[in-house]
Amino acid sequence: MVAIEHSAVCRQEKREKLLKEKGEEWAGMPRAIEALAPPSAHSGPAASEILQWSPGASASASSSEEQTAHKPPAYTPEARSASATLYLGSSSAAKDSTWLFNAKIGFVLNCADDVKAPSELYDHLGVQWTQLSALKDVTSCDISPYFDSCIKTIGEKLSQGVSVLVHCAAGMSRSASIVIGFLISPEGRQMSLVDAVHHVRERRPLVYPNKGFFLALIRLEGTLWPDRPQSILPEMIELHEDCTLLE
């Protein structure tokens, strides 16, 4: 049985390992979860940290070679506008005017109440944005109340052909949990939680939702899909102190 322990120590160790292997610029920037646009369209300095996901194409896994080359991997949900792209990243991309313009971002979802939104920049670029309040990256914080509204908003924007950036401070836990929640939802890709976690981490390896957020995702999957076997049981989190599930 595969298990996971999303402790802060484990996540920090994995992040430091990535920094050493790939370099600080690679590990610190966001990556796109879904996008149909070619890599050349995302040539801004923040492109290497974007996890990209676009409505329409197949959800093929990106290779490590693609990530090393800073090519934003593509993922597209079904029955959505081919012009819209969902990105997962850190606050660096959210403040990068060149990247925001080149990626044609029309909506930014800031999942970190401790990261100030560059409202003047967004006004200048014509970018709509919203910021979640009181969402801390701690295991005691309940992320569940945010799922419904965030999933609905992301789905609506993509359906309207609006490209979306979801970010927090590092693009590692809060924003990643929201994006994973979207991927398992009816509005998203209807993935199992296991598949969604693997899918996101294949594109952005530093993604590690904290333990509390991960438990919330387990409950969300059970609520959204009560008639299908749950892909991860809550007790599996307690079995080991490593992160083998996310390898």
UniProtKB/TrEMBL annotation:
GO BP annotation list: negative regulation of MAPK cascade
Disordered: annotated span: 54-77
GO cellular component: cytoplasm
EC number: 3.1.3.48
InterPro entries: Dual-sp_phosphatase_cat-dom, Prot-tyrosine_phosphatase-like, Tyr_Pase_AS, Tyr_Pase_dom, TYR_PHOSPHATASE_DUAL_dom
SUPFAM superfamilies to which the protein is assigned, alphabetical: (Phosphotyrosine protein) phosphatases II (SSF52799)
Family assignment from sequence similarity: Belongs to the protein-tyrosine phosphatase family. Non-receptor class dual specificity subfamily.
Stated name of the protein: protein-tyrosine-phosphatase
